[in-house]
Design brief:
The complex is a heterodimer. By secondary structure, chain A is α/β, with parallel strands linked by helices. In chain A, about 40% of the residues lie in helices and about 20% in strands. Classes of the chains: A alpha/beta, B mainly alpha.
């Protein structure tokens, strides 16, 4: 009897909820590292009379694969978080529809890697080498300035990198070396990596283990050079324990060709239930307001050239010169083969 | 008549559940992945062979099985003496120690890995004391697997050991058998079913282990599960992932089949002796030393990584401070996804509560179904295998399977919050069924028959005979389900809603950016998780009937 009443109340509640003109729901699928300021999203919801429902799909690759599997019956209306190493795959899967966002006018052409405008660039970051300032000061050792110097005996046993087979910064750094040294000549990317191996490079499977467990500044490890991001020193200050240091304990090694630019894209799903809202949300992500929120939320750089950077970025997150450039289609065609060759060379 | 229909429905429920949430999604995703290769007739077989060779499937299988076998042996070597001590002796703080034993099971590998590095990695305790650094080698993996799984052995083997009449072994000795012989022939023989059950569960967990291998095994150790994840998530190679998942499921299934045949044959009907009769305070320094060595020793070992995490949560570069704890309550980034530790704990407990209810509701009829026939029939054998199968399934593959099979009405659940407790219950089900099957099999048929002869109807028999005996087993099963859910097994595979983040999800979130604050908050949150686990398990333990349970099975 009691249960019957409970059920009745529940049914009534459900009916009542349906009867009230509930706000429309915009579904946004992101990778697990996405974040934005609370007021900003609430502002969008209010202005468009919509409720934004975020779902996280895991790593960037995992999220994309889930999106591809849901082709024809998309998991959401918008996807955020496809990077340039997966761009060709995302486009080939044909799961996004073009959106000629008016905001693209404010975004540099070199970042617009998809001319069909199915994938729109929202942010970018650089994978590069970080070093432990205190270590080099203590040892009186000059900080290496080029990738080549890392293979010198003076820097033996100092570098920790991530496995490109299981880590996105690891793959990005491998791509940087491939772009820098190429396949031909006296020093190829493969001979460079066998030199690094001889120089006792340490390989960890993920960024977490490399940075937190093996890097001497970010964690408690012993290696003073690590593959991380150009914004990591700024994050070290922002997420420092009190009392906050005025300077980060780490710095970027601004080596020529020693960094790889990761661009992250958003797109409107083909078959999105709320297509107009989805387009408006993409415009919103590219707007100056959202773009200026990006740096301190996700520690990457905004693509909109009108967006200004926070002081923390201008002070401690200098953009590395001459990042590696590899065509997205080339990466897609060779990724597996490069990783296999690297594995044989460095791990076997 | 009515009752029979009810019994039929309740037996069908767990099968239906596994059909919908395990078999169907897995079949769909494997078919999707393998269709492009197999669909080509004769050349399909060639293609399959080539893919097996290309992925290094044989080597991966060997690595998976090899490390799982060694991990299981080691876990038993630590767990058996501990089970004995916990079953046979009363000693101070035993209840607390038992609750502590459950904690490792729930901790995310990312923080456990970091604690292990602090103990046995570069710059760690062992290196400073003895120059030992085993991180990124097999021993680190084995050690971590023991850390995670020893509580399974203590719970299952310790449970049946507690109900074993010590006089059985004593009589064997009186009849002239040596100490060793009486232990092997009587005690070990009678413990065989629970020994086999716990060994199988530990093996299955290690066989499909993922985070431990990646974090502590390093890049030179690859197993089927890590390669499935790599192929599915980084290489986006669905055929390879599907093939390796199928292989893993097949091998795990064969192991489980072998086990279920063995376990049905090894079952012994026993008069269960109440634990309060079989255990006592240790006598003399010898027995106290045994308790210290086998009971307290391993527990202390398991506590070391936990202590590292707790210490990390209050150690800042400039000294001891509570700032990581206080900052948990502050939305540092002003993020829309900020979840306070209280909210995260509530989310975790809500999902775990649902998972416990669901897995027990399904697990109880499942256990009855498995034990329906004493000899084992084709049906009960198949059911037993089915109820173990979730443990052999690759989580990431299942997650992909959900995407393609649960996307349209009547089962439009892909982004649904309900899928989280459902997936947790799926992984908990094998543990729940295992906890119940052993005690159910050992109930003397005579007891039930005499009750029936005295006029009790079947429902009454269950209520009056089975229930008191099984009560402790239910609690053990509930504790298992609770810890499985709290530890978020398989959660990686699902779509998550950031505002409903559980404690492990929050921990992972902290560790995506550099900075002492992030690291410290992750450690503090791990301590919150430990507390939630310890308190939850202790609360479940508390549910046991006070005193009145004498004569009931003591299956902790």
């Amino acid at each position: 009897m009691r249960w019957g009443k409970c059920l009745l109340v529940l049914v009534c509640l459900a009916a009542a909820q349906g009867a009230w003109a509930a706000p429309r729901i915009l579904r946004v699928l992101t990778h697990s590292s996405f974040s934005a300021s609370k007021e900003l999203i609430e502002g969008f919801e209010k202005a468009n009379d919509v409720q934004v429902r975020f779902t996280a799909g895991g790593d960037a690759g995992e999220t994309l694969n889930k999106a591809i599997l849901s082709k024809g019956n998309p998991l959401a209306d918008v996807l955020f978080g496809v990077d340039n190493t997966f761009l060709s795959r995302a486009l080939a899967a044909d799961i996004f529809e073009p959106w000629d966002s008016p905001m693209l006018a404010d975004i540099p052409a070199e970042l617009q890697m998809d001319p069909s405008h199915r994938m729109l660039p929202v942010d970018f970051g650089y994978v590069c080498l970080n070093y432990d300032k205190a270590y080099f000061e203590r040892k009186g050792l000059p900080v290496p300035r080029t990738l080549e110097e890392l293979a010198l005996p003076a820097y033996r046993g100092l570098l920790v990198v991530e496995n490109p087979a299981t880590s996105s910064p690891g793959l990005a750094f491998l791509l940087a070396t491939i772009s820098r040294f190429g396949e031909k000549g006296v020093r190829t990317w493969e001979s460079y990596w066998s030199d690094l191996r001889k120089n006792d490079v340490l390989v960890a499977n993920g960024w977490n283990e490399a940075y937190y467990d093996e890097f001497s500044a970010g964690g408690r490890g012993r290696r003073p050079i690590v593959v991380s991001y150009a914004t990591s020193p700024a994050a070290e200050v922002y997420f420092a324990a009190e009392p906050r240091p005025a300077e980060p304990p780490t710095g970027n090694i601004l080596a020529e060709g020693g960094s790889f630019r990761q661009i992250e894209f958003a797109g409107v799903f083909k078959g999105a239930k709320e297509r107009d809202l989805a387009r408006r949300f993409v415009d919103f992500m590219l707007s100056r307001e959202f773009q200026e929120d990006i740096p301190l939320q996700m520690f990457v750089y905004p693509t909109n050239r009108k967006a200004s950077l926070p002081g923390l970025f201008t002070a401690f997150a200098p953009v590395p010169p001459a990042p590696a450039s590899l065509d997205a289609a080339l990466i897609d065609a060779h990724r597996d083969e490069w990783i296999a060759r690297w594995t044989k060379l460095v791990l076997r | 008549m009515n009752r029979r229909i009810l019994a039929g429905i309740s037996a069908a429920l767990p099968i239906l559940f596994l059909g919908i949430f395990l078999l169907y999604p897995i079949a769909r995703i494997l078919a999707l992945g393998l269709a492009p290769i197999v669909g080509r007739g004769g050349s399909g077989v060639m293609g399959l062979r080539k893919l097996l060779a290309d992925t290094g499937a044989g080597r991966l299988l060997l690595a998976s099985a090899g490390q799982a076998f060694l991990s299981t042996l080691l876990t038993l070597a630590v767990g058996l003496p501990a089970s004995y001590v916990f079953a046979r002796f009363d000693f101070p703080a035993k209840a607390v120690l038992r609750a502590l034993l459950a904690i490792p099971f729930v901790l995310p590998t990312v923080v456990v890995g970091s604690a292990f590095v602090a103990l046995v990695g570069s710059g760690g305790l062992a290196e400073r004391l003895a120059g030992v650094n085993i991180v990124r080698t097999l021993p680190a993996v084995l050690l971590a697997h023991v850390f995670y799984n020893v509580s399974i052995v203590v719970r299952i083997v310790g449970g049946s050991w507690a109900n074993l009449d010590p006089r059985l072994g004593e009589s064997a000795r009186m009849l002239g058998a040596g100490r060793m012989r009486s232990f092997l022939r009587v005690t070990l023989r009678l413990l065989l079913p629970s020994l086999a059950a716990s060994a199988l569960l530990v093996f299955a967990f290690c066989f499909t282990s993922f985070g431990v291998i990646l974090v502590l095994g390093g890049p030179r150790i690859g197993t089927l599960e890590t390669e499935i994840y790599r192929q599915a998530v980084y290489a986006l190679n669905l055929p390879a992932a599907a093939l390796l998942s199928a292989l893993q499921l097949l091998v795990a299934g064969l192991m489980m089949l072998a086990y279920s045949r063995l376990s049905a044959r090894a079952a012994v009907v026993l008069r269960l002796t109440p634990g309060s009769v079989t255990r006592r305070t240790p006598r003399g320094p010898g027995e106290w030393a045994l308790v210290a060595l086998c009971g307290l020793g391993p527990t202390a070992g398991l506590m070391l990584p936990l202590a590292v995490l707790a210490a990390g949560s209050v150690t800042t570069p400039t000294g001891i401070s509570l700032q990581y704890w206080t900052s948990l309550f502050r939305n540092v980034r002003n993020s829309i996804f900020y979840v306070s530790p209280v909210a995260a704990a509530m989310n975790s407990l809500a999902f775990s509560g649902l998972a416990v209810v669901l897995s027990l509701t399904l697990g109880i009829p499942a256990a009855y179904l498995v034990t329906r026939s004493r000899k084992g029939t084709l049906l009960t054998g198949a059911a037993e295998l089915l109820f173990l199968l979730p443990l052999g399934t690759s989580a990431v593959t299942l997650g992909f399977g959900y995407i393609i099979s649960l996307g349209s009405p009547p089962l439009d659940l892909r982004g649904s919050v309900l899928l989280i407790p459902i997936a947790h219950a799926l992984v908990a089900l094998p543990l729940v069924v295992r906890s119940l099957v052993g005690p159910l099999r050992s109930i003397e048929p005579g007891l039930r028959e005499s009750a029936a002869l005295l006029g009790a109807d079947p429902a009454r028999v269950r209520l009056r005979i089975d229930l008191p005996i099984l009560r402790r087993a239910f609690l053990a099963a509930a504790a298992f389900a609770f810890t499985v859910s709290l530890g978020e097994f398989a959660a990686t595979a699902l779509l998550t809603r950031p505002e409903l983040a559980t404690i492990p999800v929050v921990i992972y979130g902290f560790l995506t950016q550099p900075g002492d604050l992030n690291r410290g908050q992750a450690m503090a949150m791990s301590v919150v998780l430990m507390a939630a686990c310890g308190l939850g398990v202790a609360a479940i333990e508390r549910l046991r009937p006070s005193g009145a349970s004498d004569g009931a099975s003591e299956v902790f």
